[in-house]
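Model: Ready when you are.
Researcher: Fold this.
Model:
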Amino acid sequence: MRSSRCHPLLVPALLSALVILAARPAEAEGDGADLDISAQVARLYEDASVASGQYEAGRQDAEAQRGRAERAERLLVQERQEIAVLHEDLGRIVRAQYRQGGGLPYTAQILFAKDPDGLMRGQHAVRRADLAVAGAVEKSRRAEGRLAVDEAKARSEWLVLEKRTGELAAVKRTIEAKLDEARSALQSRADASVAAGSCRGAVRLDQPPTALTQAWVAPVETYELSAGFGSGGEHWAHRHTGQDFAVPIGTPVRAAGAGRVVKVSCGGAFGIEVVVEHPGGYYTQYAHLAAVAVDQGQRVSTGEWIGQSGTSGNSTGPHLHFEVRVTPETGSAIDPVPWLAGHGVVV
């Protein structure tokens, strides 16, 4: 799947932003009851897009936390091993001190000393052993202190990780559930329009802010390619006449290039469709839509939303059927993939 849209992500505002999105009503209740379902889906689609981006940012942040917690756990194991070694060293020092007379009081060492040099050597050995014991005890105490801090840090990070992951997943599920419900309603209305052979009229979608510099774009931003031009199948009388882009119902469909809408139709095998005439004698068709956002005769610019994908007409599942033609009518299609590539668009 490919995507050309990137959403700037601010992790500190992550959960608050997602909670606002999840709490936003489906616009079909209260004072928004007269809002067309197409606009509802478009807004929820954008909400879901933002939520997915925020969820991905949160997931990456959680993975980073997981890595830090795992490193802390590994540090705990290492420090436990070091403390065990320190305890062994303390035992050896005490045993050595005892064997060398370090356990005797200084008065006894003076009485039993055979000469001043022996006395000095004995006292020096005792002081050295005492310093070693004191140093080892202090080192052990510091290591145990670090161990306690690291244990608390590891527990805290795991708790934060689990809580954030759960909250993000819950919010994402809520938004997706709302979107699925709205998509189902949108497709039901599309099917009714196709059955009646009459379009409901254009829905004026809020166009996304774009700064396109290229003359041509893919008809959808995020997609998977499915049936290609010329492929065979029981759903086509002869051969497939376009390129299918597998996308969910309600996905915004955009004009591949600037031109004029020459056809808006809501019946037949293509279901709801739009045909746009472009300079140079080429036409593009967008079929199996769930809704249209343009009127016949309207001029459109590159990347402008002209409808929403669906599964109307002779369709086995949600997708956009896209054609490039040399006339506005069926039967004049050419392979759109190399044609798009020739115009700087690789799909």
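Researcher: Now this one.
Model:
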Amino acid sequence: MERAGGGPRAYIGSYTSGGGRGITVADVDPATGALTALADVDTVVNPSWLALAPDTGVLYAVSETEPGRAAAFRPTAGGLAPLGAAVEVGGVNPTHLSVAGRRLLTANYVSGSVSSLPLATDGGLAGPPAVLTHRGSGPDADRQEGPHAHQVLPDPSGRWVLTVDLGTDSVRVCALDTGTGELRVRAETVLRAGSGPRHLAFHPDGEVVYVLHELEPLLTVCQWDPASGRLEPLAEVDVDPDPGPNGVRAHPSVVSVSSDGRFVRAAVRGRNTIVTLSLADGAEKPRLTGVVECGGVWPRALVPDPSGRRLYVANEWSGDVTWFDVDPLSGQPRRAGALEVPAAACVVFA
């Protein structure tokens, strides 16, 4: 599906309950990376996570509400056109979504479940959803009284779906039935108790996974076997190396791997930092090489642009998207500009 018009675009999701405008459509200057806001689409409440279908270009958004919903949009020259009404996902407060074949998957934080919705031929959403409910809890009584699915993502091979659960300190490996949309758990990898895994990313080689934890500032390096669907923890790396005297707790939010496989980065809320780790010693051996300020407060998303030359950070509490030029040798980001986007939560590029 092609939108009318020219250059690259960014879509920015925000919390409408926190003063956000919904989904902001912005032009991207290819030379400088600067963002220019074009339009706001406020038809969805709390579109805090967005994803683009790689084959159709349709944009999908969660509605982080109770009951949780998801919505689909067709990019247009002027912004976005809804593909029907938002559809209930069968869970509460979805925080993440992704496309797996002809299904849209959502991770529903409050209900601790993962949903699978069929996609119509035009990319719109249909129902009803197939729902997989997680079971279990963790030692943190305030945050882990039950399951809290935070991310759901197909692996690069397309054979498996991984679900990250902050409440049960685990990552589940699931098989997706392409006919019914049902997700079946094949294995569960248990990580450090009380660490609260929140978000993972694959190395481009498809054989290493990085799991970022929210309740402890840790990055777990895992070996991934796409043939068997086996996820095996190998090592842990501290992403809050210099806590300082102020007593502010670190809350890591998102992990990102550079497209050339040379660097892995994490955004850390509370510290308001971007942590860069070099993979020069091997994908399984991240080594911390730099920490910079994120350009705002409470970084919720950390996204490289398609060229790999820049990073974009959605800073929720300061209400902006800040972009950074990335040094091609050291991988260190340097702040280059910012766009005001109240309650910014997510950025994707088309």
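Researcher: Key takeaway?
Model: DSSP finds no helices and 29 strands in the chain.
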